[in-house]
Amino acid sequence: MKGEKEKEEISDIIVQESFLSVILNKEKVITLKCSPENYDYLGIGFLYTSGILQKKEDINSIVVDEEQKMIKIKAKNIYPHLESSWRDGLIPRGSNRLDEKLISKLLLVKHFLKVKSGIIFS
């Protein structure tokens, strides 16, 4: 019939997200939102880029538990300043609350960029 819209089934790739808890020497450091792949690289990469780990030789063991969404890392020679920082709450440990020190830093942002969706999707 004229004017009738056809329904079409489509299939497309979508992003899947997961959470990963990074445990260092039996202490939870952070929970990251990530794609559910390469947990080992993500966990080690986070600790390395945060300055907590300095070199790969300091890593004693890595255990990835995909079912529990966590990576357990045992390491030596952890940068002591950062180790105490996550214990003091300066580095978030994955809870859903923001630390007051982090909130005060976020409040320093004075400008926000707003973009209309039509510009992005045109």
TrEMBL record:
Q: Give one Pfam hit by family name.
A: FdhD-NarQ
The protein's GO terms of the molecular function aspect are: sulfurtransferase activity
Keywords (A to Z) from UniProt: Cytoplasm, Molybdenum cofactor biosynthesis
**Which InterPro entries has this protein been placed in?**
Cytidine_deaminase-like, FdhD
Cite the SUPFAM superfamilies for this sequence. Cytidine deaminase-like
Q: Which GO terms describe its biological process?
A: Mo-molybdopterin cofactor biosynthetic process
* Signal peptide from the UniProt entry: none
Q: What is this protein called?
A: Uncharacterized protein
Query: Which organism does this record belong to?
Result: marine sediment metagenome
Classification from the root reads: unclassified sequences, metagenomes, ecological metagenomes
